[in-house]
Amino acid sequence: xxxxxxxxxxxxxxxxxxxxxxxxxxxxLLALVLLCGxxxxxxxxxxxxxxxxxxxxSDAVREDRLVWIGSQEDLAHDYPQAAVxxxxxxxxxxxxxKGRGSAHGALFLLWPAGHAHxxxxxxxxxxxxxxxxxxxxxxxxxPLPPVPERPRVIPVTPPRTEDAGGPAQAAADWAERLPExxxxxxxxxxxxxxxxxxxxxxxxxSGQLLGTWPWQSLPWLDAPLVEDRYRSAVLGREPVEFxxxxxxxxPLRFQLYPDSSGISVRVTRPxxxxxxxxAGPAANGPVPxxxxxxxxxxxxxxxxxxxxxxxxxxxxxxxxxxxxxxxxLVLSAADAGRLRITGYHGYDPATIERLDGxxxxxxxxxxxxxxxxxxxxxxxxxxxxxxxHPGASQISGxxxxxxxxxxxxxxxxxxxxxxxxxxxxxxxxxxxVLTSLAGLIAQALDRARLHxxxxxxxxxxxxxxxxxxxxxxxxxxxxxxYLPAGHGMDIGGDFYDLIPLDSTTVAAVIGDxxxxxxxxxxxxxxxxxxxxxxxxxxxxxxxARTGRLxxxxxxxxxxxxxxxxxxxxxxxxxxxxxxxPPPLVHxxxxxxxxxxxxxxxxxxxxxxxxxxxxxxxxAPGTLLTLYTDGLVEKPTxxxxxxxxxxxxxxxxxxxxxxxxxxxxxxxxxxxxGAASAHADDVALLLLRL
Length: 689
Hints:
It is a single chain. With 689 residues, this protein is an alpha+beta fold. The protein is 35% helix and 26% strand. The protein has 21 helices and 30 strands. Strands 1, 2, 3, 4, 5, 6 and 7 form a seven-stranded mixed beta sheet that branches. It has a six-stranded antiparallel beta sheet with strand order 15-14-13-18-17-16, with helices on both faces. The protein has a five-stranded antiparallel beta sheet with strand order 9-8-12-11-10. Helix 11 (290-303) packs antiparallel against helix 12 (309-324), helix 17 runs parallel beside helix 18 and helix 18 (518-534) crosses helix 19 (539-552). The radius of gyration is 32 Å and the shape is elongated. The two termini are 55 Å apart.
């Protein structure tokens, strides 16, 4: 895989690239497993990406297409959250790694800022062909090993090894003779070469600099501007420069020249002696690294997209833990004087069971005290924890902890605990960022808890209004499914019902109330009750009576409805539709087809309009498929295409002729794409004589 990636980067002229592969039993995460041409630190926000996130990589996999981002402006326009964490000029392409079955993940490639903003057809062909080659390699590899926590970083070209007395020594001697300093950094930012002049200018020996980050071995370079210039050089592959002030008052000019293997740095004294730096640390205390600032901005943008408590937990687990090198997480909420655990990661269930529901005033863990005081607590090792809370470290076996109080407008919301498998000294930088991050998590958690409470209420209402089960009718097999919309409160107005009228007749109904809220669900219950009260009358009369009732309710919501009266002894059905999609009929030995209906207006429009009735002969084994528009409506560039969705539905019915009805429903939901993503409610009712 190393060779496949580096060959792809060289063949396409890219400066960097990597692979995102599936992770998790539900295949809902894309994990960065291999990286080439940039440091792992720069790519940290991309370690774990939800498939549903708005990123070029997830869009490429989800939509099975090549995604091209030609500039930072394009990235900010199409993917504002990604642009916040990577505010540099570069081009990006993402292509799905489509194997023999489903996609393995995605390939992404980066080009320097000077690359053309649009990809030529030839370039697009090279990228997609490379993705196919890599996918074939993955197919042949068989089962892949577990995804690591951090991606493996490889160079674009293998490092050259030369004798100490050869060209390498000659180059070093040449650099020593020059009046300017020379440094070399790898793509991770570590010093790999330093000449004597540079060491003298920087005030450190070569041994003190080699293998370190400059901002680590030279504290006066530990500033946002320095790291930002380094990141700009790595991603943009263009020369950058800055001036910094070496204490006490020596200005130095740094010029960075990047390529695919690292960065060459010239260190000189500025021409004007008075030229000073703005890169020194602030007088008031430590300044977070630019990487930390971008992480905070990235996480803040991601927090705005969380909806449920589970979303918040997953975001913290997949974004915050890797960003701070933590191994485990507990997220708890204050509830009636106790800490209820709302989510966790990296702990065994038995430990969580012991911690769940502890009183806020418990001395067993610092969580209650932290939440009461509103002051974060950091413990670098078990000894530090034991000094204030003896026995707390034995509960989980972790070795370091950060307890972050979650408060909103002074009101305690909960506590976020990050823990480590090894002792961990929290720097001032980490403490500052984690404290700021706690406020973002608190806002997201509070909002998510309110959403979940509203969702539970709405879901309970929805379930109360739909049939708990379908009645058993001799001579008729029936199965149904309801799927709420994939957004909002997951509640809507789609409904279905099966009503036995006597020993040989039955009524089937399916409908859709406009909207996705409690009002739509409540009206759905009234409409369903009205239809049950009128059932047994001719279909047109049932719809007419229901329409008059709807007019009397003085609601602005409209309702589509299909009513089917089935005579099992006479093997026929009578149908009437109020603006509802026509059902599909599948008789044995014939292909599925739409029933040709002449619908009347939606219920709520023109209550006195007569509704045409259609009669349908039903041979033994005939299948009737009743559905709402959420199952068949497909978004396209020009709008909504229900015809294509209905054709897909008929094709799945034909492929699964004679299947068990519950299995057939699963096949229909998968075949139409409703099982994975749907913007509208879906109701489905299958009836087989």
